[in-house]
Design goal:
By secondary structure, the chain is an alpha+beta fold. Among the domains are: about 150 residues, no CATH class; about 110 residues, no CATH class. It contains 14 helices and 13 strands. The strands form two sheets. Strands 1, 2, 3, 4, 5, 6, 7, 10, 11, 12 and 13 form an eleven-stranded mixed beta sheet that branches. It has a two-stranded antiparallel ribbon with strand order 8-9. β10 and β11 form a beta hairpin. The longest helix has 30 residues. The protein starts with 9 loop residues before the first helix and ends with a helix.
Length: about 425
């Protein structure tokens, strides 16, 4: 059943109002209604599907113009919500520093400064569009879900995770060279997009930023940008990357050896059993740590992880980290934190319809992605509030169900008031009918 916009919950209204300066009055109405529709929609989040969620919402053509041609800036919206996030996290960061200073053991000499780490996680995801032929930016990209290359769009995304809170960055579209040539736009590789994301990122004051990326982004240019910004970085490695191994019998005193060959030479005694962090149930894995230099990278710590000592070496996983002072347990914690962006993609696709769009222009598609991420940020704020109130872990899905419950509660209250002011059932049916 569609809900009148007058039933908008106060917290969602206040969240939207924080970004009102970036919209004209008509545009702001569309912004609020799209956010509300994303919260409520139980069907595919096409423009038609979103339009059916609000009884007095805008027309389909109006929503289409809002996404494709209206003069508002997705970049400004994303920058504004990051500023909001930084403002919200200043006091929690200060409180965490005080907690750590109080908890550290007393000893002689000047104590080490406390460190609060925020993770800047980057990755890309394919939006599979099975029937699309004329959408802007459409290309052929590898889909992990399908296990093959599929038609669709490639979304390059950043996520900032700090003290359990999550803030998405502006979603970017990667277009292949032939697509850029056809559409007459400059080509930018995924690596270049990720470099820009790191270079322009502004962390919360008083924190240390640690960049987390998968093996696709283990390029020296990305490491260089992270180092220039004063960030730590941990990336995945493919098993054909080479390590510098000390070898007294070699004329140079060292030699290059591929990761897979190095791993083959390890024995069971070379591994340490460690706990892999997990929100549901932590598990035990076997890890090996070596401090060395990776070819075409800098000096780093290399972590090799196997689920068990009996698993084939082909299933071993590899990472390199610039955190040279971290022990193995800390490095495993860094590596495991990268999973948050996979959860982001899963939540935004499954709960908010990130890949449900049926839009023609690349600009409209990126704007839709941006609005979905704005809705995700609101849900994360609600998730954090519910965690405090309920004193247990709450998921983004739980937060969305709570928002739906509140709005349907407002709807019933509104219907009750309408009946008491003389409205007939037929009047309400006409107003609420899809």
């Amino acid at each position: 059943m569609p809900i009148p916009s007058i039933c908008l919950d106060t917290r969602l209204g206040q969240f939207a109002a924080a970004f009102g300066a970036g919209f004209s009055k008509p545009q702001f109405k569309y912004f609020v209604i799209v956010l509300l529709a994303l919260m409520l929609c139980q069907e595919p989040r096409t423009l038609s599907g979103l339009g059916r969620q609000v009884s007095d919402g805008p027309s389909l053509s109006g929503t289409s113009r809002f996404l494709s041609r209206a003069p508002w800036s997705a970049e400004t919206l994303a920058a504004d919500w990051q500023t909001r996030f930084r403002g919200q996290m200043v006091l929690p960061v200060e409180a965490e520093h005080r907690r750590r200073r109080t908890a550290r053991p007393k000893g002689r000499g000047r104590p080490k400064a406390t460190v609060v780490t925020g993770y800047l996680i980057g990755d890309d995801s394919t939006m599979h569009k099975r029937k699309a032929k004329k959408m802007g930016g459409l290309g052929v990209h590898h889909s992990t879900t399908e296990g093959k290359r599929v038609p669709g769009h490639s979304l390059v995304m950043g996520l900032y995770v700090l003290l359990g809170r999550r803030c998405p960055l502006q979603p970017m579209m990667y277009r292949q060279k032939r697509v850029c040539q056809t559409e007459g736009v400059p080509f930018r590789s995924k690596v270049a997009i990720m470099e820009e994301m790191i270079r322009t990122f502004e962390p919360v004051p008083g924190t240390l930023t640690h960049v987390l990326l998968d093996a696709w982004y283990s390029a020296k240019s990305i490491w260089r940008v992270a180092r220039e910004q004063g960030f730590l970085i941990t990336t995945g490695l493919r098993n054909n990357r080479s390590l510098r191994i000390e070898d007294p019998e070699h004329p140079q005193g060292w030699r290059w050896q591929t990761l897979i060959d190095y791993t083959t030479g390890l024995t069971a005694a070379d591994y340490q059993r460690v706990t892999w962090p997990n929100q549901t149930e932590p598990r035990q894995v076997y890890a090996h740590l070596i401090s060395t230099r990776v070819r075409k990278l800098y000096r780093c710590q290399v972590v090799i992880v196997r689920d068990s000592l009996d698993t084939p070496l082909s299933q071993a996983r590899f990472w390199a980290s610039s955190d040279l002072d971290a022990d193995l347990e800390t490095l495993i914690h860094h590596i495991a934190a990268r999973w948050d962006i996979e959860v982001l993609f899963s939540d935004t696709k499954g709960l908010l319809g990130l890949d449900h769009y049926q839009l023609m222009s690349a600009k409209a598609i990126q704007r839709f992605w941006t609005l979905v991420m704005a809705a995700y940020l609101f849900l994360d704020e609600e998730r954090e509030r519910l965690c405090r109130e309920r004193q247990h872990y709450v998921t983004i899905g739980d937060a969305r169900r709570e928002i739906q419950r509140l709005h349907y509660h407002h709807l019933i209250d509104w219907i009750y008031v309408q009946f008491h002011t003389g409205a007939s059932p037929s009047d309400l049916y006409e107003r609420l009918a899809v």
